[in-house]
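If your schedule permits, I should be very grateful for your opinion on a structural question. The matter concerns a single protein, recorded as an amino acid sequence and a row of backbone structure tokens. Could you please explain, in whatever detail you think fit, how the structure tokens follow from the sequence? I set the record out below, with my sincere thanks for your time.

——
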Amino acid sequence: MVLREVDMKSLWVYLSVLLLASSKMVDGTPQVPCFFIFGDSLFDNGNNNGLVTHAKVNYPPYGIDFPQGPTGRFSNGRNIVDIIAELLGFHDYIPPFAAAIGRDIKKGVNYASGGSGIRSESGSIQGMRITMNEQLINHQTIVKRIVSLMKNNGPLAADYLGKCIYTVAIGNNDFLNNYFTNLYPTSRLYTPEQYADVLIQEYSQQLRTLYNSGARKVALFGAGSIGNLPFEVATCGTNGGTLCVDKLNNDAQLFNARLKSLVTYLNTNLFNAKFTYIDTYGIGLSSAASSPPGSVIYTNPCCEVNKITGLCIPFKTHARTGIRRGTMLGYTNAQSPEHVKQIVSLMGNHELLAAEYLGKCLYTVGMGTNDYIINYFLSQPTSFRYTPQQYAEALIAEYSQQLKTLYNSGARKIALFGLRSSTFNARLKLLAQELNTILPNAKFTYIDYYGIEDSYMLLLEAASICSLVTHVGCCISGSKTGGCIPSEIPFKDRIRHVFWDGIHPTEATNVAIAARAYKALLPTDAFPYDISHLTRVL
């Protein structure tokens, strides 16, 4: 029986994330007692719903892929911290501060607020928001309530809070809704270097306040590639183009470099502090680079967005049929975390047993046909940029990294099907030999599909995995806000998009960032620990 394309896609991701999901506790107990969240719209899960602000998204098409619909999350589905909560073993998502009640606060609270920044004035052009300083005040209120729940036993509460995970993603709005606009004087008062120093100085004081409230294990997410946001790219298009985009990204990197140094400083100077840096910027760029050429959509969002706010325009109608949810950016197929849980549970949630099991399985990969048929052979820039030999080399370089990812997910016995391109096949055969030499116990083998009869073409086409889209967003966005325009129909194929609206990532992108923040794929993803290691340090 010929496997459907979606089945092949699901199989690939099952294998690539199985060991990641299997890190949960055997009895289903969360790895840490509580999870506290601070930040901006990347982490906000409903705190802005009751505020008078443009930065709230409790309307369709937001939440189109979330079971509860629009909740105030700035995405089509789960956000980054939702996925991290799953990976940490929590059975429910962490509640927003606006709805945190009773004993539920002991498992954690989400204080994040869209539009907020390190500086109190950042984001004020959007309306009301809960600044980082105000989020810390809210946290101190929660800490007092937790102490009360522990019968005012201060040492017991301190020990409890010290075992929790804290994530903070703040700083993007200090650039997007402060330094990069003409409505604030900061760009005239500070050079980019000086502004980064000012932000880090204030951020350092805020993190000390968090530490003094009991936090010890704190993951700090760096600024993203803000120059690549569709909203900013559109703005730069009329004001400097590529140079404008590069300047935005370079200024954000000045902040990130100082934030990484701050982590080292805090860990050195604060007793038992375990701060760690998450390289959001690098994760995003390297995830895109690991996708097939022309496979990731950056420039356009999934929804029609408001050109002023960058958010999806409210109440555009939408359809759920045909939606393939959960694909990770940088991988080539779809995945549902619930399916992964079922597979791992069959192995008794035993990681080593699962690894041994996966090492005995047979893996087949038929990939690359679409890189020729619906890329190189069409009016694509690849055919102008590369000779056939150069293009084959570029594909093999990408493919090599993807196969190493599959290997790192437990695969050992892997059959690589060639294409109807002798240039590509010759390099693929050499790649199989190279991987067997450099990867311990690897058993890659090359299948000469080029010499197989035409009747097998149907099987290859069914097994081929489509590339992710890189140039169209999910919703129609307003030209000034970048938000989805209300009641417009977003694209159904949202798993192929990096951005949901003009500013915020899709659930697929959130999965990729969260997965690599939790368990680093590259040494540069997290410093000095990824979140999975952070849960285990004493």
In short: The mean pLDDT is 77.
